[in-house]
Amino acid sequence: VIGAGGLGSPVLMYLAAAGVGTIGIVDEDSIDTSNLQRQVIYSHAMVGSSKLTSARRFIHDLNPGVCVISYETKFIAENALDIARGYDLIIDGTDNFPTRYLVNDVCVLLGIPNIYGSIFRFEGQASVFALPGGPCYRCLYPEPPPPGLVPSCAEGGVLGVLPGIIGSIQATEAIKILTGIGTCLSGRLLLFDALTMRFSEMQLKKKKDCPMCGESPSIHELVDYQEFCGIPGVWHPEALAPELEITPSELAEKLKRQHVTLIDVRQPQEWDICHIEGAQLIPGRTLPERLHEIDTSREVVLYCRSGVRSARALQVVHQAGLTHAKHLRGGILAWIAEIDNSMIAY
Question: pLDDT band for position 233 (50/70/90)?
């Protein structure tokens, strides 16, 4: 279990209660008062204590037959393979993108399932990645969002019961895989909205061109995940000249006047979750051979989820001669926040 926080707490509680024989826990944090509204295996008396020490005590009190192996360290590229090797599965209870990509890549390289969960404010997601024949996390999110765009739970807040719901789903998936029963979430992304109390689901497919798990993978070892996610000092959309970007409000006005050709460079499964009306889907990897499909009689605007992929795709269309093309700053996430909050933010 990577992370003994909001998601890790219910995961650890239910795995221990179920009698899972050996549980490894990776976490280096101490308990803070602000954790207590969602990290249910801790109490006020434990504030200031190591999460690992407190989690071990909780598990022992609940089920003394469980063997707990503690790793009081960060899960980083330098130690991740050594920590994960030998376990039957990994449960991702992290709240940052570098570690999520690291967990994914470790699972693909070692051939073990990745039980994924994510929470933010009133919404949560869960899936199972890296099963044989199934997609990995990079199939869903080929690129991370720009640094700082998506705050952590501590920064953005989260409904206290939400990690309990998503963490319980993760524990359920883990128990099903360990016991070989039921049908797991591989190939499906489960979405939960606590405000409307609705679950929805989208189908995920293993991408043939995925750099990690595709037919001809280009990633064969762990990388610098801080750098990959733009932390620190690597290129990201903010480095673009302002005249090459368009804001959501500017795009909305141009769409009303039908003065723009809008190109969505995300993947088909992302398009199925939500897309801007009037857009044309041309996934970024297919853009070079499909440039002829773009109507250049109007201003061309590209967009993706967060602005990373569209900014890079912009270089492709500029090199092809469409030098006046722009991209949507902040991607469809910014569009949802500023123009249409009825869409599902993923």
Answer: very low
- Is residue 213 part of the annotated active site? The answer reads no
Query: Which tens digits make up the pLDDT trace of 12-32?
Result: 999 999 999 999 999 999 999
Q: Which of 107, 213, 274, 304 is catalytic?
A: 304
CA distance 53 to 97: 26
DSSP code, position 158: B
For the chain, domains (ranges, CATH) are 8-228 (3.40.50.720), 237-338 (3.40.250.10)
Q: Catalytic residue at 304?
A: yes
DSSP state of 1: -
Q: Interior CA angle at 254 toward 249 and 255, to 5°?
A: 95
Task: Report DSSP letters for 312-341, one per residue.
Answer: HHHHHHHHTT-TT-EEETTHHHHHHHHT-T
User: Which of these is catalytic: 107, 139, 153, 213?
Assistant: 153
How far is it, in rounded angstroms, from Cα 130 to Cα 117? 14
Residue closest to 172 by CA, chosen among 138, 127, 140, 134:
127
pTM above 0.90, yes or no: no
Q: By three-state DSSP, how is residue 149 classified? A: coil
